[in-house]
Amino acid sequence: MKITGDQALVKKINKSLVLDNIRSYAPLSRTRVSQLTGLNKATVSNLVQELIDDRLVLESGEGQSSGGRKPLMLEFNQSAGYAAGVELSVNELTIVLTDLEGKIITRHTEPLPDHRVETTLELMQRMMAVLVAEVPPSVHGLIGMGVGVPGMVDEQGNVLFAPNLGWEGVPLREELEQLFGLPVTIDNEANAGAIGELQFGAGRHARHLVYISVGMGIGSGIIIDGQPYTGARGYAGETGHMSVEANGLPCSCGSRGCWELYASELAYEHTLIDPHPNTNTAYWVQQAMWDEPEAIRLFQQIGEYLGIGITNLVNSFNPELVIIGGHMRQAEPWIAPHVEAVVSQRTLPYHRQKLVVQYSELGEQSTVIGAAYAAISQFLGRVRISI
Amino acid sequence: MKITGDQALVKKINKSLVLDNIRSYAPLSRTRVSQLTGLNKATVSNLVQELIDDRLVLESGEGQSSGGRKPLMLEFNQSAGYAAGVELSVNELTIVLTDLEGKIITRHTEPLPDHRVETTLELMQRMMAVLVAEVPPSVHGLIGMGVGVPGMVDEQGNVLFAPNLGWEGVPLREELEQLFGLPVTIDNEANAGAIGELQFGAGRHARHLVYISVGMGIGSGIIIDGQPYTGARGYAGETGHMSVEANGLPCSCGSRGCWELYASELAYEHTLIDPHPNTNTAYWVQQAMWDEPEAIRLFQQIGEYLGIGITNLVNSFNPELVIIGGHMRQAEPWIAPHVEAVVSQRTLPYHRQKLVVQYSELGEQSTVIGAAYAAISQFLGRVRISI
DNA sequence: AGACTTTGTCTATTCATTAAACAAAGTCAT
DNA sequence: ATGACTTTGTTTAATGAATAGACAAAGTCT
């Protein structure tokens, strides 16, 4: 799209800047916003007045004086509207309603009968009907819908390829916008998870992070400078198919030695001496709690291979924080020491210096919350400039 | 830095937009610029007048009429100033003088006597003295200096770590700016190479590319959406230490199975059955020309491992183009088929679809030209906005 | 020769930011 | 309690960048 500079752009930039500061540092005064942003007091006053008119900001009363007139404190009005967050996974559909600060109001999960697009859309429609009825009375109502999908997504919200659903080239955003008459954002499941953890979870204080979703495969969401990073043509982070054993196990993708064969739930099938039918992390965690040597050994191997892949990602992206999420997060007590050992032995000293490996704080909710936040972020009209 | 929106920013954005269009599509009329940018004709006229006053744009005469008044054609004045591009490599120092379109005017190379910072700065000073005398008479003269360094660089132009030089924490930009009184930009050698190929080489028509510099090690420069991509804290792409054999050869970095041990000039030491003292690509290319089976086998292995690492990068960054540069580029005839075979077998179908693997067009010059372009780009004050 | 096109400039207007003045409301030492 | 000083937030006038539309200049085409 053609972007040129004009006064509307200036206002958009500054209004977004003011709102961001209020969201981050509330309660605070107009004068403080002026100091934080570098904008003139008069400018801040004008923009704040517009935000108050939009009902996105509230005056919450007077604050402490610091030797002069008492400031009028401003706060973000998190109840001005609500967002829907959807996680479409292989077996089930989860929908949450959140306020504008990503706090979950209600949550519903239902099993997916099959993977056909129509079935999925019908189920969504039924579940959304329930959700819409639950939206509390508010100025803006339901402001949008964010969806996390287990596959590759382009910038137009088309699902390019979702092998576990058997989807290929589904114009999901278009269909959902038509169906619900709402602005819709579509993200890869791992990217949504990364956004969720960045905004409300383990990554709240980080600017550069890699979120690794470890389930029946591995996906990564990458945040650089507070922004979700997607490669060319709108998606990236298919790191599960990074080869860590050049001549290792053959993978369904055509390659060999893919990371996810060794370090995800897929390892349950691939690494046991006696192939074991159970590919459920909960089962193996239970076994590990009972000190079953096979489970301990299994998680050690998974931990080590996670460490190897994490090292590779750290050398490429140099994040300050790596967050491990997905089902495998439940095995933290058994994998963590091995991940830690491998990472601290293998990463380059400069990368290691400030690197922290953590486990998802939002647990199963990272993706739905992140998906909802993508919709919120679009509604609030965030803008960034780089020089 | 605090960035707010004001009229100066608007003007900067639009002026940069106009100049970019003139550089890309010259010769063209003001009206055409207005159509291309979406800016009002009057705005374009004003900005073009300023650019003419700055001597960055010239009126090159009248063009063809299309049924009305003849247009006044505009061109970018590539001789308005000159930039210095420097490549600091392990054995030598290369300096070029380029015009504002990156065309090399003069070029000098001298061996580095040792790796001490002072020695290097002294040599630079001597070589720059020669270069300065060669700058043709022009409005802006020598507008800046860009340097490509074999190591990690932060956003302030500090060389954090350059193992092959033994440098650690050298404030190179600061020292050079003081020494020469010029704006200086510092980039990683591979990033500079990527910029060079993007602007003037094999990547001219690409927006997303990965440039792989294969010499005594591997470094990667990543371009996303036409912009050099650096990770957190200003550097990224240390992909040479990506582990592709989880339990492979031990590497000096502390890890095992690092890509560069198998796919760079380091492979000459590591993969031969009889360790061979010769680590020179030129030597092995000569051997391969004589159909020596050992050389053929060597390049086959290097090609295959290059393909494996490239696959990993493609899965993470999804570029449309991969460019192989550095000394190893000389072995293209012997490695290319193997790279191609592995990449087309291993990459995910969606990534493969539009992916092209090419070899550096600028050859040994990618880095110096890219470094010079970094200085030019800063001089021209390019701005980008994203919404 | 006259109607129509195209290019590029000029003029008046709009609008966002800003500096500075200002009013309102507080603190603090005496 | 009083008066000097501080702090907050609004008002006012000025600045300047983009823009629509008018307009002049220079061309083409029938």
User: Which secondary-structure class do the elements of chain A indicate?
Assistant: alpha/beta
Helix content of chain A: 40-55%
Quaternary: homodimer
In what range is the share of β-strand residues of chain A? 15-25%
Name the average pLDDT of chain A: 92
What integer value in Å does the Rg of chain A equal?
23 Å
**Lateral strand order in the biggest sheet of chain A:** 5-4-3-6-10
Listing every helix as H and every strand as E from the N terminus to the C terminus, the arrangement of chain A reads HHHEEEEEHEEEEHEHEEEHHHHEHHEHE
Largest sheet of chain A: 5 strands, mixed
Distance between the termini of chain A: 19 Å
Keywords (chains A, B): Carbohydrate metabolism, Xylose metabolism
Function (chains A, B): Transcriptional repressor of xylose-utilizing enzymes.
Organism (chains A, B): Paenibacillus wenxiniae
Family (chains A, B): Belongs to the ROK (NagC/XylR) family.
